[in-house]
Amino acid sequence: MHVKSLQCYHCGKKYPRSHLVYHCSCGGSFEIIYDYSHLKKHLTWRELRKRSFNHWRYKEFYPFLKEDKIVTLKEGATPLVESALEKDLWFKNETLNPTGSFKDRGSTIEISQALSQKAKRVICASTGNMGASVAAYSARAKLPCTIVMPRVVHAPEKIAQMKHFKAKIITVPGDYAAAEKHAYMLYQKKGSYLVGDYCYRGEGEKSIGFEILDQMKNVDFVFCPIGNGTLISGLWKAMKELKKVGLVKKLPQLMGVQALGCNTVVKAWKEGKKIKKVIPKTLASAIACGNPLDGEKAVHAFFESQGKGILVSDKEILSAQHRMQQQGLDVEPSGAVAYAGYLKIKPKGKCIALATGHGLKCIK
């Protein structure tokens, strides 16, 4: 087994790898630490590329799972689509995942973990995409599923997806933070297996980072939307892990893009201060997380990769969405956020923008 421990990102406290907790006693989020010296001795690109190109090509970098407990819908292996309008730009088309968003990468790990832990049911807080994904993978695993959503989010298409997979949906007043709090309360009361933007989801979503560096050499910039910060921090963790085991030397700069009406992470990065909760006001509902669980990790990803945070208005997001549609890529507003950030600064070099959610998830 390649997992050494769980470690709090904030205070550094370590927990046994079998410990089922969601937050450190200090309130910080976890990272999973692997035995990189062992992996360095045994992993090569030649060995990895003998395997099928999919999410599970990089299985040594995921938490230990029993083979018969893996729940998969063949997620990952999404293409890099060259831009028809900009030079040296490619879109990582995550809309081609089974439920139409990158969230499936995290769900395959989390629901597989739930089965491995002999869970009887799962519960998740979501603004839409994660709920749809968790519902699909729970259905595949034959696990009853409850999704807690903030009442302020208007996401009929995503709710329809959840209902297709027979998920129970609970709506609560307030924003995503209120939904997350309610889901945690239900988990404590009823003993459901809690899934969401915790360390195991980040371990799944980081596979985008593995694939990017597997698909293309010498990438200079990766543009990534920010909601809870789990995606961009997982992306950076994956890239650092490939460097630790000697598979890559040069890492790209990460450009975190956030909606102006939910500017928690980028504001903290710009001001050099702690993240402060806000009430989200943006049409990009999939990233409307006013109290990001992995915000601290996201800020660190900017600094460590020598990247930056970028704020984009709803008008800029819609413009980017329309520009992607002109190129044959149908994304929801949140799926165009990374591209909106690219259009704002257009750096010189090889760039990748994540297209995170399908346009059919938000038809207006």
In short:
The chain contains 13 helices and 13 strands. The chain has 364 residues and is of the alpha/beta class.
Give an overview of the whole structure.
The protein is α/β, with parallel strands linked by helices and 364 residues long. The protein folds into three domains: 1-34; 80-100 and 203-361, Rossmann fold; 103-200, Rossmann fold (3-Layer(aba) Sandwich). It has helices spanning 36-42, 45-48, 103-116, 129-141, 156-164, 176-190, 199-205, 207-215, 230-244, 264-271, 295-305, 314-325, 337-345; strands at residues 3-8, 14-15, 30-34, 80-82, 89-93, 122-125, 145-150, 168-172, 193-195, 221-225, 253-259, 308-312, 351-355. The longest helix has 15 residues, at 176-190.
Give a short account of the largest sheet: 6 strands, mixed
Biggest β-sheet: strands ordered side by side in the sheet? 4-5-13-10-11-12
Q: Kindly state the mean pLDDT as a whole number? A: 94
CATH topology of the largest domain: Rossmann fold
Instruction: Give the low-pLDDT segments.
Output: none
Q: In the residues, how many domains can be counted? A: 3
Task: Give helix and strand order, one letter per element, not per position.
Answer: EEEHHEEHEHEHEHEHHEHEHHEHHE
| Subunit arrangement of the protein | single chain
Head-to-tail CA distance between termini: 48 Å
Total helices: the number is 13
Rounded radius of gyration (Å): 19 Å
Described by the principal axes of the CA atoms, the overall outline is globular
The secondary-structure class comes to alpha/beta
CATH secondary-structure class of the largest domain: Alpha Beta
Helix content: 25-40%
- Number-wise, the strands total 13
Beta content? 15-25%
